[in-house]
Amino acid sequence: MDTILYLARHGETVDNANQIMQGQTQGELNENGLRQARELSEQWKDREIDVVVASDLKRSVDTAAILAAPHGLEVVTTPLLRERDWGGFTGRYIPSLKNEVWPDDIESLENLLSRAGEFITYVKKTYPGKKVLAVGHGIINKAVQAVYYKKSMSEISRMSNAEVRELVL
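-> structure tokens emitted (169 positions)
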């Protein structure tokens, strides 16, 4: 039996709304993000879910807790699903970064894709045959899909906050 990975992005945060590069900061869901998570939870309350996994960053854990509640499940966290580390760009206003030279302390694409692959392996080995709802972030979720579909990151469409995509592992 296949493992089903429902890959979700956390609800909108204060920094998302303000176009601030969050990277591996904890982040805080704003009112819209809480609403998005509650609406998704309502949509998914009758779906079969065996496990809820989240990035260990607060914005994902908080979203996952809302999604897990109707199922009576605890949230399992993993740093494998953390957002890309944006180094010196963390905390900066995104539109102002357009023509900037990337600092050396940004997590490499190779490392990001490697982590994404490790996450897929972790889910397959830890939860064989289960339905796993995993709450991550925009860029790491894109990397997970790039590895899964064997495509480049640019070929994967951006996920909206509280969007879910299904991968059969």
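The two ends are 10 Å apart (CA to CA).
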